[in-house]
Amino acid sequence: MDTLWLKPEEISVAARLLREGQLVAFPTETVYGLGANAWSEEAVAGIFLAKGRPQDNPLIVHIAGRAQVETLAADIPPEAEKLMERFWPGPLTLLFPKKAEVPELVCAGLETVAIRQPAHPLALELIRQAGVPLAAPSANLSGRPSPTCAEHVWEDLAGRIAAILDGGPVGVGVESTVVDLLGPEPMILRPGGITREELEEVLGRPVLLDPALLGAEERPRSPGMKYRHYAPAAPLEVLDGPERELIWQTILQEATPDTGLLLSEEGAAYLAGRCPGQFLVLAPLNQPEKAAQRLYSALRTMDKAGVKRILAEAWPRQGLGLALMNRMEKAAGGQCRRVEVQ
Ligand code: TXA
Ligand code: MG
């Protein structure tokens, strides 16, 4: 299949392809998505095929406006109203009890459907012109880092999908926060672009983290969180600990010329001139949102540089730091090492 590379002014072509049941990658504010008509089981099946995605991993349905929620959700909890009002359009995905008409494949057989209204003008216009909600996972091959620009989508999916709508680089850089409001307590199933602190402020009560995210031996409630994900080709290890300088010293001891180093600005300044390895500087430690924006692209750069091993400095788990660390730990396949003075 020849994949079309579409410019923003060719959006009507993208919308037509979607109406015909084809797959189109499009920009959102978080990462690029791979869209298909959510009402068409056949179109949605194509997504799993193109990405090599396991069929037990449900998709997020993207809508253009609040009114479309009723077509998909059987019930809307009052707290969902609050969060939609405050954070949509934006990087927040909410679970709702699904209507029977939503194809089973979209929800991987679950009773819930995940919905979000993305905050990207091209995404919203595309959904509007297509006239249907779009089921859309991130537009990467399953297991690869999510795409933060059209070129990344091309690397992974050229020849497998009908078109890519190029909207330039994305803003947030990590995926949406997935929140479940259907249990007794609000719970984050996947940390993302909207922070736990922001959610708690609006809901006025604590928001839990799925225990599986904290390393408990439980099955994550968001099926996608159980896979090694976002992974670069080289093995990655995250170094964490109470003392920053100890983390840097460990990197100094272990790095070789073909080690990739994912560092804060502070870490890079400490190691500059005396540590071998390929430096990739994400951001200053107090700007996790900037680091999140650059993470996936950095992982792809490491792949291209052909490093044999990647050492990553941990970030404080506050604000966007929670999502950043979750993605780093996934990329590491759980390889997080604490360095402490004995
Ligand atoms: O920012 C985003 O959310 C991006 C852009 C394209 O919108 N999309 C995205 O989709 O990250 P995907 O498929 O890569 O991740 C969707 C996550 C998975 O972890 C999946 O298991 C979870 O959402 N999910 C979807 N439906 C669910 C449901 N009904 N119950 C629990 N988890 C669900
Ligand atoms: Mg994904």
Automatic annotation (TrEMBL):
| Places the protein is found | Cytoplasm
Residues at which ATP binds: R53, N57, T112, S138, S146, R190, Y230
Positions with a binding annotation for L-threonine: T30, H62, R116, A136, S176
Per the record, the GO terms for biological process are: regulation of translational fidelity; tRNA processing
Looking up InterPro entries in the UniProt record yields:
DHBP_synth_RibB-like_a/b_dom, Sua5-like_dom, Sua5/YwlC_C, Sua5_C, T(6)A37_SUA5, TC-AMP_synthase_SUA5
Q: Does the keyword Cytoplasm apply?
A: yes
Q: Which GO terms describe its cellular component?
A: cytoplasm
**Domain (YrdC-like) ranges:** 8-194
Q: What does this chain do?
A: Required for the formation of a threonylcarbamoyl group on adenosine at position 37 (t(6)A37) in tRNAs that read codons beginning with adenine.
What family does the database annotate?
Belongs to the SUA5 family.
Query: Which named protein is this?
Result: Threonylcarbamoyl-AMP synthase
List the lineage, top down: Bacteria, Bacillati, Bacillota, Clostridia, Eubacteriales
